[in-house]
Sequence to fold (231 residues):
Amino acid sequence: MRLRSNLTAIFAVTILAACQSGSASLETDDQIASYGFGLDIGASLEPTLTHLDRPALLRGIEDVLDELEPAISFEQISEVTERVGTLIREEEAAEFEAMTETNRVAGEEYLASNAEKDNVTVTASGLQYEVILEGEAGAARPTTANTVTLHYRGTLIDGSEFDSSYSRGQPATFPVTGVIPGFSEGLQLMSVGSHYRFTIPSNLAYGPQGSGPDIGPNATLIFEIELIEVL
Fold:
């Protein structure tokens, strides 16, 4: 109960401070830590934003701090919270489904257009690649048994970057089979010293589930890869 009271107090102070955030100081350790608490709380509330009534939220906090009896019974609160939670999950599912279809259509259109370019080759799996620089004749090519060292940049078809070894300032090393199928297939087309651009259909990438906040469902991905070494 003590922990719950402390968290409630932190929550209250953070929300109340947000109402006058323009005048909030961020200088002392307590202020900076409190700001961090606020960021965490704000992130946790983000999924409920379209259903969040801030005056009602503040009233609940103030009633606790003022030691008042709840204006609504806990039984009713539990019932309504469950109902709103179900609605939020349904809305999120509908949004995800719409994104899945949007990405599928956009990906198919992009792949069809890209495949028409003279310098683009399409493999039997549907992977598309463009040779930017070919390695020297006789240079090693990786197989599924190898580990490789390389530089790469991954973007969506709108150009937004979701991963890059260049940004981290050092090449990456991983097994050829330790990546998505399209990336793995592409690596085996390259020789050391090569620089290729791959356009990977979603079924050779992360498919309808996507990956994290940056790669949505059915996303078509683009990777530029420079193969440095085969281990």
Q: What stands out?
A: Residues 2-71 form one domain. The helical segments are 2-18, 29-45, 54-65, 74-115, 165-168, 181-187. The chain has a mean pLDDT of 89. Residues 74-115 form the longest helix (42 residues).
